[in-house]
């Protein structure tokens, strides 16, 4: 799980162009949206694409993202359970 | 009505200048790296910069150079107009987005898609500065000082406009450039008269001889 969390942080930094953010800056249980990283709705869509492209997970209901993207740890848990690649 | 160019700036993949004076920017002569180096030099905290396409980065950086240490901004104001021109529209970003639509590798990026309109650059400048006035974007075959003069002149034909930010902002393949003018009603003793001749000369000084 720790390796998945670290990889996920690196992927998020890359795909969202978080130029000045390092993996260790992202706290595992901190909210991804609303504070901290300052992500917006376009970033949420980009995370949906990331889940599909890298892990073969299709979020059919965008509203589901609200729960899945609550924190890095929640996201990693979801990926571990549902990944197809 | 007498109009003046109160400040102007030019940026391409090799150098940046303000009012004809070159800035010292340490960065590789490659457009992405150079624009990032210029952003770092400006010491601005605006992480959204890194999400922008090159066209928006150019407009953002030029407007930062125009407004640093100057005009009051970051409070909503309606007396400013943003007018942009270029040749290639958002073609560079359009091509990038198109490449994400290939069968078998169909992962269109939402963050790329949002820049597949050229006038987004005007919106980025407006959002950053909280300018609520008009914005417009014109596609032109080449840099056309007569067209710029005319558009700016028309923008002042009301009692509301106090300044116009006019720019030629272009990015395609390896090269990019932005030439931005701040045009105002106010007359300063050192102000440059706003005329087709001056627009042409200032642009050529940077574009051809910079």
Structure explained in plain terms:
The complex is a heterodimer of chains A (85) and B (210). Chain A is mostly helical and 85 residues long. Chain A has a single domain, classed as Non-ribosomal Peptide Synthetase Peptidyl Carrier Protein, Chain A (Orthogonal Bundle). Chain A is built from four helices and no strands. In chain A, helix 1 (2-15) crosses helix 4 (72-82). The longest helix of chain A has 15 residues, at 41-55. The two termini of chain A are 16 Å apart. In chain A, 22% of the residues are buried. The model of chain A has no long low-confidence stretch (mean pLDDT 91). With 210 residues, chain B is α+β, with helices and mostly antiparallel strands. Chain B has one domain: Thiolase/Chalcone synthase (Peroxisomal Thiolase, Chain A, domain 1), CATH 3.40.47.10. In chain B, strands 1, 2, 3, 4, 5, 6, 7 and 8 form an eight-stranded mixed beta sheet that branches. Chain B contains seven helices and eight strands; from the N terminus they run E-E-E-H-H-E-H-H-H-E-H-E-E-E-H. Chain B is globular. The two termini of chain B are 31 Å apart. In chain B, helix 2 packs parallel to helix 5 (120-129). In chain B, 38% of the residues are buried. Chains A and B meet through helix 2 of A and loops of B.
The averaged pLDDT of chain A comes out at 91
Number of domains of chain B: 1
Relevant CATH superfamily of chain B: Thiolase/Chalcone synthase
Radius of gyration of CA atoms of chain A, rounded to a whole number: 12 Å
Helix and strand run of chain B: EEEHHEHHHEHEEEH
Shape call of chain A? globular
Q: How helix-rich are the residues of chain B, as a percent range? A: 25-40%
Strand-pairing-aware structural class of chain A: mainly alpha
Distance from first to last alpha carbon of chain B: 31 Å
Question: What coarse outline of chain B follows from CA principal-axis ratios?
Answer: globular
What order do the SSEs of chain A take from the amino end to the carboxyl end, as H and E? Answer: HHHH
- Quaternary state, please? heterodimer
Query: Count the helices of chain B. How many?
Result: 7
The profile of the biggest β sheet of chain B is: 8 strands, mixed
Q: What is the CATH class designation of chain B? A: Alpha Beta
Quick check: average pLDDT of chain B? 94
């Amino acid at each position: 799980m720790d390796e998945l969390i670290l990889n996920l942080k690196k992927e998020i930094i890359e795909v969202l162009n978080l130029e000045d953010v390092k993996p260790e800056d992202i706290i595992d249980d901190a909210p991804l949206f609303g504070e901290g990283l300052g992500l917006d709705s376009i970033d949420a869509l980009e995370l949906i694409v990331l889940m599909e492209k890298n892990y073969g997970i299709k979020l059919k209901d965008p509203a589901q993202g609200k729960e899945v993207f609550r924190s890095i740890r929640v996201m990693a848990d979801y990926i571990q359970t549902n990944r197809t690649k | 009505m007498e109009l003046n160019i109160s400040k102007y700036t030019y940026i391409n993949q090799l150098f940046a200048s303000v009012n004809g004076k070159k800035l010292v920017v340490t960065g590789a002569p490659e457009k992405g790296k150079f624009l990032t180096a210029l952003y770092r030099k400006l010491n601005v905290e605006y992480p959204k910069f890194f999400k922008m396409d090159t066209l928006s980065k150019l407009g953002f950086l030029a407007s930062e150079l125009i407004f640093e240490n100057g005009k009051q901004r970051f409070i909503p104001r309606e007396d400013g107009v943003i007018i942009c021109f270029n040749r290639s529209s958002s073609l560079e970003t359009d091509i990038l987005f198109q490449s994400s639509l290939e069968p078998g590798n169909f992962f269109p990026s939402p963050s790329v898609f949002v820049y597949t309109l050229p006038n987004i650059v005007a919106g980025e400048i407006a959002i950053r500065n909280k300018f609520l006035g008009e914005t417009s974007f014109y596609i032109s075959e080449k840099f056309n000082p007569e067209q710029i003069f005319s558009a700016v002149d028309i923008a002042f034909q009301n009692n509301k406009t106090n300044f116009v930010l006019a720019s030629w902002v272009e990015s395609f393949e390896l090269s990019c450039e932005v030439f931005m003018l701040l045009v105002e009603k106010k007359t300063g003793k050192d102000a440059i008269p706003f005329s087709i001749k001056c627009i042409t000369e200032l642009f050529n000084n940077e574009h051809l001889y910079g």
